[in-house]
Amino acid sequence: MTRPRVVLVGPPGSGKTTVSALLAAALGVDVRDTDADVEATAGRPITEIFVDDGEDAFRDLERAAVAAALAEHDGVLALGGGAVLDAGTRAKLAEHTVVYLEVSLTSAAPRVGLDRSRPLLLGNPRAQWKKLMDARRPLYEEVAAISVSTDSKSPDDVAAEILAALGRAEAAR
Ligand SMILES: Nc1ncnc2c1ncn2[C@@H]1O[C@H](COP(=O)(O)OP(=O)(O)OP(=O)(O)O)[C@@H](O)[C@H]1O
Ligand SMILES: O=C(O)C1=C[C@@H](O)[C@@H](O)[C@H](O)C1
Ligand SMILES: [Mg+2]
User: Fold this and answer.
1) What is the phi/psi pair of residue 77, to 5°?
2) What CATH number has the domain bearing residue 51?
3) pLDDT, greater one: 95 or 169
4) Is 125 in the pocket of ligand 1 (CB under 6 A)?
5) Residue nearest atom 13 in ligand 1 by C-alpha distance
6) How far is the CA of 90 from the centre of ligand 1 (A)?
7) Residue 157 CA: which ligand 1 atom is closest?
8) Is residue 1 part of a domain?
9) Cα-flanking dihedrals φ and ψ of residue 43, to 5°?
10) How far apart are CA 173 and CA 163, in angstroms?
11) What is the pLDDT of residue 114?
12) Which residue has the higher pLDDT, 111 or 59?
């Protein structure tokens, strides 16, 4: 059965896209990112989808992209930061090896900055990020068997920690 080796979840700026590429290189597998899949399907950047069609329309595209990637991809998979908001997606993730990349507001703020490519953080990014995390932290914790703090760690350190945790999880099976 085809299934991702590992699925990364976490808020904007936790490093899902960055770390997934490092993990895939280390494991010698392909990397896939549902944000890129949504953009390819829509033929537009995520910011434009939010502005033109609204968040609900984006979430519908995201739900379909996540379902397809979970069924088709056998490498490392990075999910969009809000993919866990969908209950059906969370139920699917129960069957997968999911890693939650934790990050504090202090560490995330300089990473996401005022980047306009993150529509949910427009306005006051720090306040938006905190509100978003208060709602999502329990959801990330619910779906992930492994949590890795990324504060004060380089992307290489985070990838190495995940590889070690995956090795321990496989040895325990
Ligand atoms: N451990 C880290 N330490 C410092 N900077 C990092 C770390 N991980 C990622 N970054 C930087 O933070 C920024 C955001 O990283 P990235 O795009 O990988 O996050 P993401 O979780 O995929 O966000 P999104 O949910 O918006 O897709 C990038 O500029 C990246 O280089
Ligand atoms: O946290 C979120 O809700 C988002 C994160 C990004 O990965 C994108 O999926 C989009 O900008 C929404
Ligand atoms: Mg990303």
Assistant:
1) -125, 125
2) 3.40.50.300
3) 95
4) no
5) 111
6) 23
7) 1
8) no
9) 70, 20
10) 16
11) 54
12) 59
Does residue 118 have its Cβ closer than 6 Å to ligand 1? yes
State the closest ligand 1 atom to the C-alpha of 101, by its place in the atom list counted from 1.
Answer: 21
pLDDT beyond 70 at 116: no
| Atom 4 (ligand 2) nearest CA | 81
Atom 23 (ligand 1) nearest CA: 12
Strand blocks (E) in 4-150: 6-9, 31-33, 76-78, 98-102, 146-149
Stretch 56-71: mean pLDDT: 98
pLDDT digits (tens, 9 = 90+) for 71-110: 999 999 999 999 999 999 999 999 999 999 999 988 988 8
For residue 90, what are the domain limits?
Answer: 6-168
CA 15 to ligand 3 centroid distance, Å: 7
Number of domains in the chain: 1
- Check: pTM over 0.90? Answer yes or no: yes
The whole-number pLDDT of residue 44 equals: 97
Binding residues: 13-18, 35, 59, 81, 118, 136
Q: Does some domain include residue 51?
A: yes
What is the whole-number distance in angstroms between the Cα of residue 1 and the centre of ligand 1? 31
Could you give the 3-state DSSP secondary structure of residue 94? coil
Instruction: Please indicate, yes or no, if residue 151 is contained in any of the structural domains.
Output: yes
Measured from the Cα of 80, ligand 1's closest atom is 25
**Does the residue 101 lie in any domain?**
yes
| Cβ 70 vs Cβ 96: under 8 Å | yes
Angle, vertex CA 139, rays to CA 3 and CA 40, nearest 5: 50
